[in-house]
């Protein structure tokens, strides 16, 4: 019988260092049958298991068109992620997933898309950006707003530059702190840039992730520009043990983030977002 | 009122256990152990706690022996059925590194046996139905839970006596068991009135030396059960408190409870509906393999809401709010009813005697919050 708790062995096909603490693991499931049946949607995540250390939830950043090679961009912050950081191509780890509900990418076809991220939390939306750019004509304008604390925290600099050169695509970057001369973009809060973003507030979908206070302030600014509460989508993070809706750790009000999220419509969580203790 | 199939006379009560054993069941029944009542293997009614009753009050539990032949006059011990279906701790899987093959993962599933539990209370049956919904009703049914659950045969006893901490009448879950049992008993001094709730229960009843009840016996049993409900002093202020509690997230009373609550997690471990658990990795000290376990956890720990560098519920008031709001509120959205079955265990086993019925009444006495404020 199939055991939803059981990870599957996966091989590290490639490891890339993105910044001093951020790295990308390209993983491939070892079992051909598992590989064939694996399908995912941008915004979903896997439980990535490091033998002897434990499992952590990590978003899938690659394109779902190629579900055989699964990219995970990870920041080394603690026990498991630091261990994952030491892996090399050819090493094996465990993987189970995909879990949760991703971005509403088919529902928002034909609309302008605003992607607003803060801090290092951009991983959950990167898959969506790549997805949209590969199907560019299905969507209206694309605005990418990304804020970081320090200029050095920005990863995928090259990607942002390449995205900015795409048709009908606007990239607005901000760093709270940046050394003079090395940062061609805005110095200050990313939310200051919302006024410059060119999109139709009445026909758009917003995708957000990052620290919750930033998301809350972002929601307020977008609503101020006329965006409806049900056009705003956010990727949430909570402690996750099982990712199967059993362990109770990820409860966010009545919702289980691993099952009903991690992507939520702001309209459905407006009573909780930004409030202590949820 | 139940449909009694007949009376099992006290001197023949052991045939029930014999029939169960004959059908291949390990029989668990209530026994006195460590000053409380627990379910343990029993081979005859003489192992059962005849005459024992317990005194329960906030933060208080004591057994007393009375001169009575009755084996089920006690109401509840600290644990009901939960540990039998949702193991306090169990291995999920083991991973091994094999030369030339890389990692190999193997599931662990419990060795299950057919188990009959004698003396299950209505509140615990209601709690089991809720745990079934949680562990089996979602998109990823829990195979370990399912295996344990499927092996269970349940013999309920209706409560003829309520503890002062019981409030199942107010939650609608007792003192009579209505669903979820195979066989149900009403205990009188002279024996047991028997009802069946399943095919297995009917087959079992047919194999017992039942005699037709005497006139008045059924009425006596019904009267005692009704009285056990009417005698309950505690109650919740309503069946569905989700909206009322959501409207009081900022009530000052949460802080007041937070100053008394020790965040020990006793309430969550005795609660028959709490399902939270955490995962734990146990690497083998010398060999190249590691096992992954799960064990009961509580929303009163800081680890429960930890995400890197932040504890979302940083103080006890927020954790108590999570517990009570989930139990009496959000369960309605998740599973269509309250997560409380009125067993009163969390009141009895709280070292400082915090009583959720009183706290809920105090919270509801406060006016609803007026702000849509954000604390970010
Ligand atoms: C849906 C989802 C998607 C995520 N996607 C990514 C991603 O793409 N890249 C990335 O770098 N990080 C991501 N994270 C965060 C990542 O899971 C945590 O950084 C990681 O669990 C930290 O584990 P650790 O053992 O290294 O750290 P420690 O601080 O030692 O954590 C110990 C344990 O706490 C829990 N925990 C700690 N932090 C988090 C957290 N932020 N979220 C959930 N549980 C946590 C885990 O159970 C972890 O095993 C995601 C989190 C969620 C919920
Ligand atoms: S909340 Fe308390 S009274 Fe209600 S079911 Fe749980 S332990 Fe029993
Ligand atoms: S969140 Fe708390 S109250 Fe709810 S099931 Fe988990 S431990 Fe019980
Ligand atoms: S992570 Fe276990 S319930 Fe969501």
Write down the CATH topology of the largest domain in chain A. Rossmann fold
Helix segment count of chain B?
Answer: 13
Question: Hey, which two chains have the biggest interface?
Answer: A-B, 47 and 52 residues
How many helical stretches of chain A? 7
What is the level-2 CATH architecture name of the largest domain in chain A?
3-Layer(aba) Sandwich
Uncertain parts of chain B: none
Describe the main β-sheet of chain A briefly: 7 strands, mixed
Oligomer: heterodimer
Which stretches of chain A of 5+ consecutive residues score pLDDT under 50?
none
Indicate the percent of residues in helices of chain B.
Answer: 25-40%
Mean pLDDT of chain B: 95
Overall pLDDT of chain A: 94
H-E order of chain A:
EEHEEEHEEHEHEEEHEEEHEH
In terms of DSSP E residues, the strand content of chain B is 15-25%
Number of domains of chain B: 2
**DSSP strand (E) fraction of chain A?**
25-35%
The gyration radius over C-alpha positions of chain B equals 23 Å
CATH class category of the largest domain in chain A: Alpha Beta
Strand element count of chain B: 15
Short description:
Chain A is α/β, with parallel strands linked by helices and 278 residues long.
Q: Explain this structure to me?
A:
The complex is a heterodimer of chains A (278) and B (376). Chain A has 278 residues and is of the alpha/beta class. Chain A has two domains: 8-99, Elongation Factor Tu (Ef-tu), domain 3; 112-269, Nucleotide-binding domain of ferredoxin-NADP reductase (FNR) module (Rossmann fold). Chain A has helices at 32-37, 79-85, 123-134, 157-164, 212-224, 257-260, 266-269; strands at 8-17, 22-29, 45-50, 54-59, 70-75, 92-99, 112-118, 142-150, 169-177, 186-187, 204-209, 232-235, 251-252, 255-256, 263-265. Chain A is globular. Chain B has two domains: 6-230, no CATH class; 242-375, no CATH class. Helices cover 30% and strands 24% of the residues of chain B. Chain B contains 13 helices and 15 strands. Chain B has helices spanning 14-22, 82-85, 122-136, 143-150, 168-171, 199-206, 217-230, 242-246, 253-260, 266-270, 316-335, 345-348, 356-365; strands at residues 6-9, 26-33, 36-41, 52-57, 60-65, 89-98, 102-107, 115-120, 152-157, 183-188, 191-196, 277-283, 289-296, 306-307, 310-311. In chain B, the strands form four sheets. In chain B, strands 1-11-10-9-8-2-3 form a seven-stranded mixed sheet. A four-stranded antiparallel sheet of chain B has the order 7-6-13-12, with no helix packed on it. A two-stranded antiparallel sheet of chain B has the order 4-5. Chain B is globular, with a radius of gyration of 23 Å. Chains A and B meet through strand 1, strand 6 and helix 5 of A and strand 6, strand 7, strand 12, strand 13 and strand 14 of B. The complex binds flavin-adenine dinucleotide (FAD), iron/sulfur cluster (SF4) (2 copies) and FE2/S2 (inorganic) cluster (FES). Flavin-adenine dinucleotide sits between chains A (45, 54, 56-59, 73-75, 77-81, 123, 237-240, 262) and B (306-308).
């Amino acid at each position: 019988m199939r055991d939803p708790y059981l990870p599957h062995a996966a091989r590290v096909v490639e490891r890339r260092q993105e910044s001093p603490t951020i790295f990308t693991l390209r993983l491939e499931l070892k079992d051909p049958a598992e590989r064939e049946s694996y399908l995912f949607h941008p915004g979903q995540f896997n439980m990535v298991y490091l033998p002897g250390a434990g499992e952590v939830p990590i978003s899938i950043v690659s394109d779902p068109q190629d579900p055989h090679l699964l990219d995970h961009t990870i920041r080394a912050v603690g026990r498991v992620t630091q261990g994952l950081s030491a892996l090399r191509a050819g090493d094996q780890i465990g993987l189970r997933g995909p879990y949760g509900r991703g971005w509403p990418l088919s529902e928002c076809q034909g609309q302008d898309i605003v992607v607003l991220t803060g801090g290092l939390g951009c991983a959950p939306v990167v898959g969506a950006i790549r997805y949209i750019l590969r199907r560019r004509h299905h969507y209206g304008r694309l605005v990418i707003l990304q804020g970081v604390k320090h200029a050095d925290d920005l990863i995928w600099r090259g990607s942002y530059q390449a995205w900015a050169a795409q048709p009908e695509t606007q990239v607005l970057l901000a760093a709270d702190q940046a050394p003079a001369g090395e940062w061609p973009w805005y110095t200050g809060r990313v939310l200051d840039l919302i006024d410059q973003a060119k999109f139709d507030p009445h026909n758009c979908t917003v995708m957000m992730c990052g620290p919750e206070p930033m998301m809350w302030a972002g929601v307020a600014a977008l609503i101020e520009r006329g965006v409806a509460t049900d056009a705003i989508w956010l990727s949430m993070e909570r402690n996750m043990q099982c990712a199967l809706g059993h362990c109770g750790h990820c409860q966010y009000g009545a919702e289980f983030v691993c099952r009903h999220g991690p992507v939520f419509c702001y309209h459905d969580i407006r009573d909780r977002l930004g409030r202590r203790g949820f | 009122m139940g449909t009694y199939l007949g009376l099992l006379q006290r001197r023949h009560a052991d045939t029930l256990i014999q029939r169960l054993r004959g059908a291949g069941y390990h029989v668990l029944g209530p026994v006195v152990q460590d000053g409380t009542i627990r379910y343990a293997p029993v081979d005859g009614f003489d192992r059962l706690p005849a005459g024992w009753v317990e005194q329960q009050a906030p933060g208080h539990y004591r057994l007393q022996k009375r001169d009575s032949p009755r084996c089920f006059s006690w109401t509840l011990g600290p644990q009901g059925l939960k540990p039998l279906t949702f193991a306090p701790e169990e291995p999920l899987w083991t991973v091994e590194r094999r030369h030339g093959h890389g990692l190999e993962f193997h599931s662990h599933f419990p060795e299950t046996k057919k188990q009959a539990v004698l003396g299950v209370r209505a509140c615990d049956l209601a709690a089991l139905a809720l745990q079934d919904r949680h562990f089996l009703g979602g998109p990823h049914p829990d195979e370990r839970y399912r295996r344990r659950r499927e092996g269970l045969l349940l013999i309920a006893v209706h409560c003829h006596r309520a503890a002062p901490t019981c409030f199942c009448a107010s939650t609608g879950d007792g003192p009579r068991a209505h669903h979820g049992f195979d066989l149900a008993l009403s205990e009188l001094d002279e024996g047991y009135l028997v009802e069946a709730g399943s095919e297995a229960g009917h087959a079992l009843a047919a194999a017992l030396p039942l005699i037709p009840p005497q006139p008045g016996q059924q009425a006596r049993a019904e009267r005692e059960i009704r009285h056990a409900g009417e005698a309950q002093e505690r109650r919740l202020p309503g069946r569905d408190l989700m909206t009322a509690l959501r409207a009081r997230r900022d009530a000052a009373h949460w802080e007041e409870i937070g100053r008394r609550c020790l965040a020990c997690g006793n309430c969550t471990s005795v609660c028959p509906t709490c399902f939270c658990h955490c995962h734990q990795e146990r690497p083998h000290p010398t060999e190249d393999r590691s096992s992954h376990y799960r064990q009961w956890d509580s929303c009163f720990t800081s680890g429960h809401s930890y995400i890197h560098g932040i504890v979302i519920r940083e103080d006890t008031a927020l954790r108590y709010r999570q517990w009570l709001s989930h139990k009496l509120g959000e369960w309605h959205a998740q599973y269509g009813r309250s997560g409380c079955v009125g067993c009163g265990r969390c009141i009895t086993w709280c070292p400082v005697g915090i009583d959720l019925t009183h706290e809920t009444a105090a919270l509801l006495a406060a006016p609803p919050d007026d702000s849509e404020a954000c604390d970010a």
